[in-house]
């Protein structure tokens, strides 16, 4: 029997949100927070930890200077990334979608096989090909989010629906509105249409026709 898994996108989860997702306001009541999602803080130190890990991995690459220069907005992109993961996690919970560690491991194996091996996958991730650079360890966060999106699509019955991305986007928008999202203004403000900080040069979550549905691989 074929097992269906979600393909890795090192830029973001494999679904693009067509509907507005997040609205942001000050986190003045939460000192030390980069963002707050549903009352749960994403601390500035947590964001910095992700950034430091990426920078350390980039410095190990032969083209380190170019990689670092090309990801000058890494800190704010990381805030985007961590907030998105939290919103997807809340939406998955609301739909009864539970992703196991084994599922993530299987998706990782598939992603490595398709990339040409673990080293090739890690290289692709840290290079930030088309988006947010990630360390080899952070790849699992994207894989888990992809699997959650796929599970949500299955629960909504929109896995093969051409409008599936829009419907999932609406659910994520409703989830974000219900739980509440606050953004520290030092990282910019949210653009509801782009689902991104408007100060970013390029949103990490892209809006191309190709990405309007969950991306899956048969394996």
TrEMBL record:
Which keywords fit this entry according to its UniProt record? Signal
Protein name listed in UniProt: SurA N-terminal domain-containing protein
Q: Which Gene3D superfamilies match?
A: Porin chaperone SurA, peptide-binding domain
Q: Which domain of life is it from?
A: Bacteria
The membrane-spanning stretches of this chain are none
Record carries keyword Signal: yes
Q: Does the keyword Transferase apply?
A: no
Signal peptide bounds = 1-23
Question: Coiled-coil segments, which residues?
Answer: none
């Amino acid at each position: 029997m074929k097992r269906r898994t979600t393909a890795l996108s090192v830029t973001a989860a494999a679904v693009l949100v067509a509907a507005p997702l997040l609205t942001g306001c000050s986190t003045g009541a939460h000192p030390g927070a980069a963002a707050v999602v549903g009352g749960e803080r994403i601390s500035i130190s947590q964001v910095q930890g992700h950034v430091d890990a990426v920078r350390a991995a980039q410095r190990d690459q032969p083209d380190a200077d170019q990689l670092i220069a090309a990801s000058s907005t890494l800190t704010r992109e990381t805030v985007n990334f961590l907030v998105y993961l939290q919103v997807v996690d809340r939406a998955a919970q609301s739909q009864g979608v539970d992703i196991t560690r084994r599922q993530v491991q299987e998706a990782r194996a598939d992603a490595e096989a398709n990339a040409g091996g673990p080293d090739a996958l890690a290289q692709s991730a840290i290079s930030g090909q088309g988006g947010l650079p990630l360390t080899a360890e952070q790849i699992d966060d994207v894989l888990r989010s992809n699997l959650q999106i796929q599970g949500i699509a299955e629960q909504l019955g929109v896995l093969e629906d051409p409008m599936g991305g829009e419907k999932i986007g609406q659910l994520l928008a409703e989830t974000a509105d219900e739980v509440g999202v606050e953004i520290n203004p030092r990282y910019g403000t949210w653009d509801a249409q782009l689902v991104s900080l408007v100060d970013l040069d390029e949103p990490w979550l892209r809006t191309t026709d190709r990405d309007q549905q969950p991306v899956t691989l048969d394996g």
